[in-house]
Amino acid sequence: MKQKFVFFLYLVVLILPNIVLCFTENMPFVGKAALVLLPLGLYWTVLPMFFRMSRTFWWMFPILFLGAFNIVLSYLFGKGVIAVDMWLNLTTSSPAEMGEMLSQIYPAVMAVVLIYLPTLAYAAYDVYRKTVIPVRFMKHQMCAGFSVLLLSLPITYMAARGDKWNLLDDLFPVNVCYNLCLAIERQFLSEEYLERSRDFVFNAVHTDTDTVPKVVMLVIGETSRAANWQLNGYNRETTPLLSKTPNLAVFTDCMSQSNTTHKSIPILLSPATADNYEVLYHSKGLLAAFNEAGFHTAFISNEPRNKSFNDHLGEQAQEVLFLRDKMSGTPMDSLLLPEIQKTLDRNKGNLFIVVHTYGSHSTYSDRYERNQAYFTPDVVLKATKDNRSILMNAYDNTIRYTDRMLHRIISQLQAQERPAAMLFASDHGEDIYDDGRNLYLHASPWPSYYQLHIPFLVWTNDLYRQEHAARVSLLESRTAEPIQTDCVFPTILGLGGVSTPYGQDSLALTSPRYITKEKRTYLSDHNEPLTFDRCLEKEDFQAMEERGLRTY
Description:
The protein is α/β, with parallel strands linked by helices. It contains 22 helices and 15 strands. The protein folds into two domains: 2-188, no CATH class; 214-546, 3-Layer(aba) Sandwich (Alkaline Phosphatase, subunit A). A hairpin with a 5-residue loop joins strand 14 and strand 15 (529-531).
């Protein structure tokens, strides 16, 4: 009786992630039946096949690992499987960042540990004892498993014939393995990028006839969502300094085209968009274009190096500085300010600077100095919906810290006594248990409104406004436009007066040829452009409507 119990325990542990997905995924009933019955039939047939079921169970360890990983992600993101982007995040996120994330979701991690480790430990003990199960019992189970497998085949066929279920996308663990193959392919593309883009040229020229050299700066925020910016109508004083800053154009309806850093940053820094992302693999970026146009360029980052496209595009600058190359741990973003000042002081010609901050990454209370904790209490041991008010205090403090940081950058530019323009945009936003879905963090397989709606603003000084009054007027007339991060690349080129055949003037907020997009798009996990009606849920549309944002 004991060994029979253990056999069915192994089956339950193996099929558990599929059962969880039945509750989290939006698929037809026949698809859910296929999701459970086909893998169950296979496991049921294979497990007793060699009459040493515990040894066979250990042979299935890769499936068990994927299942445990997927259950944790289901807890974190509410739905979806281990996506291509999640596999890539394992290689592009720092160990410290991954550790911070895991520490915040340890209830799910502990639950998985309590389910899987004791079962694996018993199986190892059973292998050590060389326990042999009665042949008759195992043959009966093979027959039962084969019967379930046969039953699953026509059900799987019916599910696959529909347009709402796909074997590669919806059948666990097939979908996870497929995503892993895609991730490996994309990793190779990243590693081959330098060779693929070596001969690429923008044919960029500087067309402005300025009497004085200018400074153009792009500041990239991290994990900053517009819903928590006072400038965007939030009811807390999270941007007290910027709210009083003149010459600031605030774009209230900007959506990121990706909720993952390793894809959203290339969209900011290159001609790639959700609609033509493959351009990234063989083209260069903003810094290379400004190099060709005769600007001195600098890239200053508080992000860790990870050999991704973010690094490749940043390293196209003439000056490259990663703070973490010379500092241990996670430096505060304020340490970027002296480096920015040094770059401004030693380059008096036309200058283009990209600053990549660490922004509002979790753990939020570690992103600012303790004396900057304006909203309190702000320190929490674990992230749960019950602790949302404390998490929100800490997160709002990160926005105030960004406000102070941007105010000081503007002061640095103001002191230059030459035309200066700065554009700030975040790579993506963040979920913080905002509605009944109880979503947290970002980079989920499917986005939410809170992950996509980002702050976007442009500041210009008086000298710049005098030199380029028409350009600034066009830009400021479009602050209510429904835009996306695909406009950053062409708008920065426009602010710099840099012309290139790759400029995408229809997306440039500074161009008279700008065209309002009919529908905005999101770059899916499989790099397909999805309109909002294909990737967002009713809670997201409701949140957008409440804020007066366009829902398409």
